[in-house]
Amino acid sequence: MGKVLAISLFIATVFLSACSSAFIDKDAVEDALLAHKAEFNSCYEDGTNSLASRPSGRIRVNFIIGREGKSSQVSIEETSLHAPLVESCMVKTIEKIQFPPSQGEDAHISYPFKFNPH
Hints:
Blueprint: E1 5-9, E2 13-16, H1 26-34, H2 37-48, E3 57-65, E4 71-79, H3 84-96, E5 107-117
Antiparallel strand pairs: 1-5, 2-5, 3-4, 3-5
């Protein structure tokens, strides 16, 4: 089956701890995520294969990037897609990504993904 998905990736907000002096390059975080776009596409395709039709929607993922560039506490903040297989795959994919290191304290990230089948 060919590609059936347009995926929009963009950083909406980078939240930093209120008492921290964290700094992280937003463009580098986005580049790290975009480097795994094919994996996110696979999450969507594999996770919606058994559905009668592929839904459109957004998934907002929260995670923390530490000083070594590793993510932790990856979780789904909100979803309009309501596809648990897609959501769990996205969490696992983000857990494997090497991000740019946070300078200072850990950087708290909120990142929305938008899925549109076509």
